[in-house]
Write a structure and sequence with these properties.
Layout: H1 11-22, H2 29-57, H3 62-71
Length: 77
């Protein structure tokens, strides 16, 4: 099911959505906006989850940062 709504967007975002449709990267402007909203929702949910972890366990310390750098191959040594 879909619901039709009207929204106001900055001109540059509308141009971006139309360009994506013209390039074949999106089926329609509506599909482009829906995908952007899904992406934002996932990112927002992840941010909330990480905030909840920080509240429960405290923020990661330098050891966690060092481990992440090594695991991602960002180790400077």
């Amino acid at each position: 099911m879909t619901t039709k709504i009207a929204v106001s967007l900055p001109d540059e975002l509308v141009a971006e959505a139309k360009a994506a449709v013209a390039a074949g990267a999106s089926a329609s402007v509506s599909a482009y906006v829906a995908a952007a909203m899904r992406s934002f929702s996932r990112t927002d949910s992840l941010a909330q989850f990480l905030d909840d972890l920080d509240a429960q366990f405290g923020p990661p310390g330098p050891e966690a940062d060092d481990w992440a750098a090594r695991a991602l191959g960002l180790d400077a040594t």
